[in-house]
Amino acid sequence: MNIDINIFGKYNKQIIIPEFGIESQKKLLESRVLCVGAGGLGSTLLMYLVSAGIGTIGIVEIDKVDFSNLHRQPLYNTNDIGKNKIDSAYNFLNKLNPDINIIKFNNKLLFSNAYNIMKDFDIVVDCTDNLESKLLINEYAFILKIPMIYGAALGFEGYVAIFDTLFGACLRCLYYKYPVFGVKNCNDDGVIGPIPGIIGCLQALECIKLILHKNKINKFVPLMSKILFINGVDSNIKIYNIKKNNECDICSVLSKNILIFNNLIKFSCVSYNFVKINYNNLYIFDIREKDEYKKSHILGALNISFYLFYLFVSFLHKKLSYNCNILIYCGSDAKSIISCKLCNKYLYFNVYYLQKGYNNVIF
């Protein structure tokens, strides 16, 4: 890649750093980074990545700008309230650096779309505000063999870490003993504005270091399998090592048995009559939303919504034998098929879904 005089001028203040130089700038311009979330962490991260000259940046965000966002999300102002964050962020960042290719994903990252969204990027940066989304990013980063830069902010505290399949631990190792649901988040428990700003800056710095480290430029040392903790109350900063957990559901169990669901399909479509005949030998999962389940459902079915099923099934092997019979149903059959593929990935092969879904069953 040739860098013209205008590009050199734009990034001159970082190019002239002895440890950085022109080759480092070239690598940044060639890189592809995905940012999941454009809120408190993502706002600061994106401004610095765009300004630094990361060539292609993907942004995943589905929320609208709310008045309560403005104290910690500098991408937005009062004129943006009620607008889609993804559009407001794009407009701000494009003015900041129109030479960067910004790809908008106006979606919530889900099991059903994570693979296709993440597969074309070199690095994924987690700027979400809930553990469910963070664990989803972690799993697909592991499957796709791309590094994940983790960030979190709550109250006066913040955390940054890098998880890479080539360097041991993953995020699930860190949260192995924690519940998947019910963990505190800033929406419910609050955050002081500068903390997500600091964490977003640190994530941007680690992203730049990681790009250069992966390209073997100088001796930058990213936070591989380490977590940086900052306490804003006393301005205390500590770094801890994260040990790989040999019983981890992701990097240990999946690393031995991983089966990308597109490559192996072993499940069947069955009628409701099949369900009635085999009822006593089936574990039945209703993956509709709670209000639909309450109105009517197959007796004995456990309700786990489609958007949380991917987390639930990762723990299934601790409760159910791999030889058990699993029936999954939704309103139609599209989400059931996706969920069956997920069960296959976790080595459950006696899996069935209800033909045409629950809404078309004649009882």
Characterize this entry briefly.
The protein has helices at 5-10, 12-15, 21-30, 40-52, 85-96, 111-118, 131-144, 171-174, 186-189, 194-214, 253-257, 272-277, 290-295, 306-313, 334-345, and strands at 32-36, 56-60, 101-105, 123-126, 148-154, 157-163, 226-231, 236-241, 267-270, 283-286, 302-303, 326-329, 351-354. The chain is α/β, with parallel strands linked by helices.
Write out the strand line-up for the largest beta sheet, numbering strands in chain order.
3-2-1-4-5-6-7-8
CATH first level of the largest domain: which class?
Alpha Beta
CATH architecture of the largest domain: 3-Layer(aba) Sandwich
Largest sheet: 8 strands, mixed
- CATH superfamily assignment of the largest domain? NAD(P)-binding Rossmann-like Domain
Strand content: 15-25%
Shape: elongated
Question: How many DSSP-defined strands?
Answer: 13
How many helices? The count is 15
Q: Structural class, from helix and strand content?
A: alpha/beta
- The unreliable regions are 258-263
The percentage helix is: 25-40%
Backbone CA Rg: 22 Å
Order of helices and strands: HHHEHEHEHEHEEHHHEEHEHEHEHEHE
At the fold tier of CATH, the topology name of the largest domain is: Rossmann fold
Distance, first to last CA: 65 Å
Tally of structural domains: 2
Instruction: Give the integer mean of the pLDDT values.
Output: 87
Description:
With 363 residues, this protein is of the alpha/beta class. The chain has two domains: 31-253, Rossmann fold, CATH 3.40.50.720; 259-360, Oxidized Rhodanese, domain 1, CATH 3.40.250.10. It is 37% helix and 17% strand. The protein is built from 15 helices and 13 strands. It has helices spanning 5-10, 12-15, 21-30, 40-52, 85-96, 111-118, 131-144, 171-174, 186-189, 194-214, 253-257, 272-277, 290-295, 306-313, 334-345, and strands spanning 32-36, 56-60, 101-105, 123-126, 148-154, 157-163, 226-231, 236-241, 267-270, 283-286, 302-303, 326-329, 351-354. An eight-stranded mixed β-sheet has the order 3-2-1-4-5-6-7-8, sandwiched between helices. Strands 9-13-12-10-11 form a five-stranded parallel β-sheet. Helix 15 links the parallel strand 12 (326-329) and strand 13 (351-354). The longest helix is centred in the middle third of the chain and has 21 residues, at 194-214. The protein is elongated, with a radius of gyration of 22 Å. 40% of the residues are buried. Residues 258-263 have low confidence and may be disordered.
